[in-house]
Structure formats: C-alpha cells, structure tokens
Hints:
Layout (H helix, E strand, L loop, with lengths): L6 H20 L6 E2 L2 E2 L2 H13 L1 H16 L8 H15 L8 H23 L8 H30 L12
Antiparallel strand pairs: 1-2
Amino acid sequence: MKYNVPSAVRIALCVVLLVIAYVLQTTLGLRIAVFGAHIDLLPLIVAAAALQMGPAAGMVCGLAAGILYDTTGLGAEGLYPLYYMICGIACGLVRGRLCRMERRGTMLCAIGMIALLAALRYLFYFQFGDISLLTFLRNVIVQAALAAVFSVPVLAVVRRIAGRKPQISVSPDA
C-alpha cells in the first residue's frame, strides 16, 4: 500500500534532518576534520532538498539552516537565514536544468553554497584577521571535496524523505 505524504510533512522531515545534523556536528563533537577544514552537512541538506522538492522546500530548509547557524552567534544576526534562503531558492530554481544529473547537481549546488559563503566570510570577517589567502583557499578546497563526498549519502536520505525511490543504477549521472 502506498501512502501520499503531503509536501509540508516532507519539508518538515527535512527540517528535522537539518536539526539532527546540526546537533550531531556541533554539540556531540562529531565534526570531521581534514587538514583543519570541517565538513558542514547543512548546505548539503539544503541543496538536496531544493533539488528534490523545489524552491519552496529550499527556502524553508534554508531558513531553518540559517536560524540554526544564527544560534551559534558567530555572525551578524539574520544574515545566515537570508543567505541560506536565497541559496535554497536558487538551487530549487535550477532543479529543472539539473534533473538528469541529481548527484552532480547536489554536489555543484552544495559546493557553490560553501564557496560563496566562505568568500563572503573572508571578505567581511577575515580581512582584518591573521588568516592568509593560501590558508583560506586550502580550507575552501578541502571543504568542497568533503562536500562532494558527503553529498551522495545526504542525497540518498533526502530522496527517501522526498518519496522518490532509491536509484540502483551505477551510472555516475543517475
């Protein structure tokens, strides 16, 4: 028997997934670090939700992710929700162009979100600090590589939440 789950419930499940990922990567210390750069699962979830369920899901998940980031108090209040909402909407809008390459699309959207946020942080916060440009670029490249690796399992979970069947094919664009 197949059940039709309303899209609002699916989006709410993605928000719950965001909260769980945020709690796991901040409070429990499960932050994966490679060369000093940490993986951030929230942009991956926002990108995957937007590509699977559209711009409205991207907006809601982006707002939730931004609010979660604002709870840390590291940035200016209200900028993270705005940033992630805009990125979620943008990922949802390019969904039609990327429909045949879900895995690559999720990777590209997540890497774009991470790189853009890192560039904005560097321009506004780090320009007055002691971080060198080479260290900054190394961190962005490592974060992008980690995002590419972790976007596939995140996409599988979000596909399941979105009500799509898991893909069994082994082709890279499936």
